[in-house]
Amino acid sequence: MIRTSVIGLGYWGPNLARNVHTCPGTFLYSLCDRDEERLAAIATNYPAAKTDSDAATVLADPDVEAVVVATPVHTHYKLAKAALEAGKHVLVEKPLTDSVETANELVELAETKGLILMVDHIFVFSPPVRKMKEVVESGELGDLFFIDSIRINLGLFQHDINVVWDLAPHDLSIVDYLLGRLPRSISAFGSVHAGQDIEDVAYLNLDFGEGLIANIHVNWLSPVKVRHVLIGASKKSVLYNDLDGSEPVKIYDRGIHVDGSREARHGLMIDYRSGDVVSPHFQRAEPLQQMVRHFAECIEHDRKPLTSGEAGLRVVRILDAAQRSIKAQGGRITL
Q1: Cα(191)–Cα(140) distance, rounded to whole angstroms?
Q2: Which of 72, 71, 106, 75 is nearest to 89 (CA)?
Q3: How many CB atoms lie within 10 A of CB 215?
Q4: Angstrom distance (rounded) from CA 329 to CA 243
Q5: pLDDT score recorded for residue 262
Q6: How far is residue 3's CA from residue 66's CA, in Å, rounded to a whole number?
Q7: Are 30 and 7 in contact (CB under 8 A)?
Q8: Which residues are paired to 63 by β-bridges?
Q9: Crossing angle of helices 309-327/100-113, nearest 10°?
Q10: pLDDT for res 254
Q11: pTM for this prediction
Q12: pLDDT at position 259
C-alpha cells in the first residue's frame, strides 16, 4: 500500500482523505492543514494517520511516498513542486496550477524525476462520462458537430479564482477526454457582479476545426443547478445530465438529413429524423474512488495517468487563453 499524505482539508480535502483511506492500494499515512482545529476534527476519523500543520514537515518525511494536494489554486505550484523535488508522487486538485508556465514546469519536473503527476479531473472517472467516450469512439454518433456544456449553480464563491478557473476545468477536462486535442482557438466573455474584479458568469466558445465547436457556460449566480453536456452529431446525439440519478446518459436518434443531390441544390431539401431515445446501462461507481485507485495503479505499474500532468496542462492552456479573451472583450485567442 502506498503511504499517502493529504495536504489541505478544506472543502474537497476531506473527500480525498476518505477515499485514500478506503482505497486498497493506498494507506492514509498523514493529514496536513494549517488550521489545527479543522485538522484535529477530521483526524478523529483516521486514528492511524499522523497529523501536521506544516506541509514542509510532511514533504521531508521519507516514509511519505505520495502526496495529494487539495489546497487553494495559488498554492498548487509551490506545494506540487516541493513534493516532486522531494521524490513524492503527486495528485493535485484541479486546476493543476494558475498559469501555463508553472503547469509546464511541473510536467517537465515530474518527467525528469520519473514520478507520477496526476490531476483531479474527477469527471473523467465518472461512469456516465466513460460511457459517452465509448459511444463517441464507436462511431455511433457519426461526425461531431457541437458540444454544449452548462455548469451553473448559486455559489460557491471563490476568493482567489474566478468562475472560469473554478468550474470550467470540469467541462474542459470532459471535452479533452472525449476529443483528445486542444481547440484551434477560443473566445470568452465574462462579467463581474459580486465585486473583487472576479468574474462570476462566463461563456466560452472553442473552435476545434472541421465544423466542431464547443460552448461552455459557467455561473455562480444561477438560482437553479444545471449540469448538462450535450453532444450533437451527424447520426445521433448524446445528453449527459449529471443530476439525473436514474438515467444520466441518453442517446437520441434524432437529427436532420440533407439531400445533396444535384436536383436539390437549388432548394432547401432537409428531412427531419425522429427515432428512439436510449438510456444505456453502465456499472455504477464512485468517481473519486476510481480516481484514487487509478493514481495508485499508475504509481505501482509506472503508467501514465488518464488525467496526467499533460492533460492538466492542456486544460490550463485553455483557461489561460479564456482569461486573456475575457480581458480583451471576447477577442479570439489562437491556441
Answers
A1: 38
A2: 106
A3: 15
A4: 33
A5: 55
A6: 6
A7: no
A8: none
A9: 170
A10: 82
A11: 0.94
A12: 62
Q: Map grid coordinates 467541462 to a residue.
A: 171
2-115 topology per CATH: Rossmann fold (3.40.50)
Helix, coil or strand: residue 205: strand
Looking at residue 302, what DSSP letter applies? Answer: T
Distances (CA, A) of 13 to 91, 161, 219, 253, 321: 12, 18, 23, 41, 28
Nearest CA-CA partner of 206 in 166, 162, 147, 152: 147
H helix or E strand, kind and range, residue 101: helix 100-113
DSSP code per residue over 13-64: HHHHHHHHHH-TTEEEEEEE-S-HHHHHHHHTT-TTSEEES-HHHHHH-TT-
The burial class, CB within 10 Å (0-12 / 13-18 / 19+), for 51 is: middle
The set of cell numbers assigned to 45 is 476519523
CB 109 within 8 A of CB 196: no
3-state secondary structure of 224: strand
CB 325 within 8 A of CB 186: yes
**Which residues are bridge partners to 189 per DSSP?**
203
Q: Which residue positions in the chain have pLDDT lower than 50?
A: none
Whole-number pLDDT of residue 197: 85
**Quick one: pLDDT at residue 194?**
84
At residue 76, the pLDDT reads 98
d(CA 163, CA 161): 7
> How many other CB atoms sit within 10 Å of the CB of residue 114?
9
CATH number for the domain formed by residue range(s) 124-286+318-334: 3.30.360.10
Q: Which amino acid is at 50?
A: K
* Domain limits, CATH 3.30.360.10, in the chain: 124-286+318-334
- Determine the pLDDT at residue 138: 96
In this predicted structure, what is the pLDDT of residue 159? 82
d(CA 216, CA 228): 10
Which amino acid is residue 276, in one-letter code?
Answer: D
Question: What Rg, from alpha-carbon coordinates, does the chain have?
Answer: 22
CATH 3.40.50.720-classified regions of the chain: 2-115
